[in-house]
Amino acid sequence: MLDFTDRVAIVTGAARGIGKATALRLAEEGADVVVTDVAAERDDVADAVEERGQSALALEVDVSDEAEVEAAVEETIEEFGRIDALVNNAGIFPTADLAALSAEDWQRVIDVNLTGAFYCTQAVCPTMREQGYGRIVNVSSAAGGRVGWAGNLAHYAASKAGMVGFTRSAAIDLGPDGVTINAVVPGMIDTGAAERVSSDEEIEAAVSAIPVGRQGDPEELANVIAFLASEASSYVTGASLVVDGGITKV
Ligand code: NAD
Asked: Is residue 233 within 8 Å of 178, Cβ to Cβ?
């Protein structure tokens, strides 16, 4: 049991998938949750947070837009007065063979997946430092350097590897102020993501290689994110926690 009583968490990309599971898990543990996303389903997730007895704020935020991120953080402070946890989950994964990958597509993936996490982290830091407490969790990917099954994803892999480097260095900057920052490194999580980038045959082959024999549930990743977003992870910072059913070990 993690204690999020009186804690406030911001989750990006929380309208569906891993972000949604995380927002609901944090609410179940007692956190008030700011549900941010470009997708309108953020409102349904905020309703689900309230059904779990917690306060919610649904905000339309494109994480690659610095002004929108700053406005969302200001609104959070106005509504709740503090920010205890930030989960940088928003991400996109369009596929393209390297030879056909345009500079625009490359840049968009870096902007959303990596620069977005930077904007959000920088925006919450003054509040977390002032509180002397904060937890930041970055959602990376096993495709960012751990496994080779992610062909046609050079831009995505670069963004997710970048997130690990960002996490390690930021941990050194933030540690003295009571703020920890860690990454989770998911393998295949069953959010429909694999179906968007791979054929059925490719998915079957990838799943058959996973030691536990299946994709992970979003809730199984949310469990780990919730731990890293909680007080209980106080001596963990700069880490990259692999959550992959063992695929990166084979
Ligand atoms: P998903 O597509 O189901 O959810 C991603 C959410 O991010 C969506 O709600 C989407 O609207 C939102 N989003 C996209 N662009 C945005 C932007 N610019 N600003 C704000 N929100 C934006 O994906 P998912 O499978 O839940 O993945 C969540 C995260 O986990 C992503 O960062 C992804 O790269 C990472 N990840 C997923 C897997 C997997 O197998 N599902 C594996 C490794 C890493």
From this structure: no
How far apart (Å, rounded) are the C-alpha atoms in residues 241 and 33?
Answer: 23
Pocket lining: 93 vs ligand 1, CB cutoff 6 Å? yes
Element (H, E) at 235: none
pLDDT of residue 202: 86
* Domains of the chain (ranges, CATH numbers): 8-249 (3.40.50.720)
pLDDT confidence of 166, banded at 50, 70, 90?
A: very high
Tokens of 118: 């930077």
Quick check: CB of 184 below 6 Å from ligand 1?
no
Q: Is residue 14 a contact partner of residue 36, using CB atoms and an 8 Å limit?
A: yes
Tokens of 97: 């063979």
156 is catalytic: yes
Token digits of residue 144: 């960012």
Q: Are 194 and 188 in contact (CB under 8 A)?
A: yes
pLDDT in tens, 44-68: 999 999 999 999 999 999 999 999 9
6 phi-psi bin (left φ>0, alpha ψ -120 to 50, beta other): left
> Which residues, at least 6 apart from 121, have a Cβ–Cβ distance to it below 8 Å?
86, 88, 136, 166, 170, 181
